[in-house]
Design brief:
- This protein is α/β, with parallel strands linked by helices.
- The chain folds into 2 domains: about 1-175 and about 185-205, 3-Layer(aba) Sandwich (Peroxisomal Thiolase, Chain A, domain 1); about 210-360, Thiolase/Chalcone synthase (Peroxisomal Thiolase, Chain A, domain 1, 3-Layer(aba) Sandwich), CATH 3.40.47.
- It has helices at about 1-5, 40-55, 60-65, 75-80, 100-110, 125-140, 155-165, 230-240, 260-275, 285-290, 295-310, and strands at about 10-15, 20-25, 65-70, 115-120, 145-150, 190-195, 210-215, 250, 280, 310-315, 335, 340-350, 350-360.
- It has a 5-stranded mixed beta sheet, with helices on both faces.
- The longest helix is centred in the N-terminal third of the chain and has 17 residues, at about 40-55.
- The chain is globular, with a radius of gyration of 19 Å.
């Protein structure tokens, strides 16, 4: 969080990953992704889940009654497409690590969680979907608490090569998602665990409230973005209508850096908020963290929630030059009012859109 507060990017050249002319972000401590029993994404999910639970002080009894919701776009692919250090090479279908569901199962097994266990894999919206589905599960009274984990490890030669061949990675090293010259995203690894409780034992220590969740589909193309951002517009509109008497203070947009996504998203933002006298500020976090695919929405939620606990919104990357016209993109942390609403948006290939609302 220290770099986020300073609005400094944590990205570096990917020479060790076979792309010396491109930048990305990775987890320095590789031991956190090593496990004899599980694939690397599952091992990381267990690691972050244990850290979160220990920090919160949940007991064995608390965990036994909890639910697990996991989100990942690529699952354990990095562990079987390429040899993963510290783990015996296995045939793809000779071990459970070819199954995305191993991530949620591993967290359940290692933490003794006996409630519902689900894996959401909706591309880059997986993390937000895991959070949203966990919230709905708790609201329905099916559990009192949930462990939400979201992990993606795209920094393997095979996966990076595929992204590069598809033209999705930045070609000009411009880390400015809404610039007309943006040409692609900066890949990153991430592992996130967020704990949800309906009645926290220590309410004063809660970071924020998850106050809503909405999804839409573009029904347009399996890869390309619908150019007018119609699905994003509907998703954001539903979120705004849910808070008629409260201020939508800020939005963390998807902003991954691909030209098509930038065009669709800015069009949608203007359609929803263009006529408002006081527009929400935009807080683009991928220029700071890179794009961790399915884990990005959960990572951004963790950053937002950490800032909101202090009554603030995180600053934007200092080198942003092309914000969406008409919207404030602050370079300094912004203060929040007590009743403000903050929206987080994720957009996935296939035209799946997800929004969650956070309140103090």
């Amino acid at each position: 969080m220290s770099r986020v507060k300073a609005a400094e990017s944590g990205l570096a050249m990917l020479g060790d990953f076979g792309l010396p002319k491109k930048r990305g972000g990775w987890i320095a401590d590789r031991k956190r992704m090593l496990h004899q029993r599980y694939g690397p994404a599952s091992a990381l999910a267990v690691d972050v889940a244990k850290r979160a639970v220990n920090a919160r002080g949940w007991s064995r009894e608390d965990l036994a009654e909890a639910a697990v919701f996991a989100g990942s776009s690529r699952g354990n692919a990095a562990g079987w497409l390429d040899a993963w250090p510290g783990r015996k090479r296995r045939k793809i279908y000779a071990a459970s690590n070819n199954l995305h569901s191993e991530i949620a199962a591993a967290v359940s097994i290692e933490l003794g969680i006996r409630g519902a266990t689900h894996l959401l894999s909706n591309g880059c919206a997986s993390g937000l979907d895991a959070l949203g589905m966990a919230m709905l599960h708790l609201r329905c009274g099916l559990a009192k608490r949930a462990v939400v984990v979201s992990v993606d490890l795209p920094l393997s030669p095979a996966l990076l090569g595929s992204f590069a061949e598809s033209g999705l990675l930045s070609a000009n090293d411009l880390n400015d998602p809404y610039s007309p010259k943006t040409s692609g995203f900066f890949p990153a690894e991430a592992g996130v665990a967020l704990l949800l409780e309906t009645s926290p034992k220590r309410p004063a220590e809660a970071w924020c409230e998850l106050a809503g969740y909405w999804t839409t589909s573009d029904a347009y193309d399996p890869i390309g973005a619908e150019p007018k951002g119609e699905g994003i517009t509907r998703c954001l509109t539903s979120a705004v209508k849910a808070f008629p008497k409260r201020r939508i203070a800020a939005i963390c947009p998807h902003g991954n850096g691909t030209p098509a996504q930038a065009a669709a998203e800015t069009t949608a933002l203007k359609a929803v908020f263009g006529g408002e006298p006081e527009k929400p500020s935009l807080h683009l976090l991928k220029p700071l963290s890179g794009h961790s695919l399915g884990a990005s929405g959960a990572l951004e939620t963790a950053i937002l929630a950490h800032s909101m606990r202090e009554g603030l919104l995180p600053p934007n990357f200092l080198n942003l030059t092309e914000p969406a016209k008409g919207f404030m993109v602050p370079a300094l942390a912004q203060k929040l009012r007590q009743d403000d609403v903050v929206l987080n948006l994720s957009v996935a290939m296939g035209g799946h859109n997800a929004v969650i609302a956070l309140t103090r």
